[in-house]
Design brief:
Mean pLDDT: 88
Low-confidence stretches: none
Number of helices: 2
Largest sheet: none
Strand content: under 5%
């Protein structure tokens, strides 16, 4: 009978340890999930900032090319032609 009691006590001890480890892992998982959410929000904000800077860079580049920079004159002409085509398309859509 003593062996059975010893086995039961051993099992209870192991189960207790497993439950403790389970709770610790559960808390660690929750913490990591929260950190991941924070990191994803920060990454999304950084992507937004990068896109804003790219738009500003492209606008500045276009402005510089329109000022007469010889190396980007062709690029400015292409951009103006694209804008004219878009305006023509809009006018055509409005007149239909």
């Amino acid at each position: 009978m003593s062996d059975v009691t010893h086995i039961v006590d051993s099992l209870e001890n192991r189960i207790s340890k497993l439950l403790h480890k389970y709770e610790a892992l559960k808390q660690a998982n929750l913490k990591l999930t929260q950190e991941l959410a924070i990191s994803e929000r920060a990454r999304a904000e950084q992507e937004k900032v990068v896109l804003e800077w790219e738009e500003k860079y492209n606008a500045l580049k276009l402005a510089n090319s329109m000022l007469g920079s010889s190396e980007t004159k062709t690029e400015a002409k292409l951009k103006i032609n694209t804008l004219i085509r878009e305006i023509d398309y809009c006018i055509a859509q409005l007149s239909e």
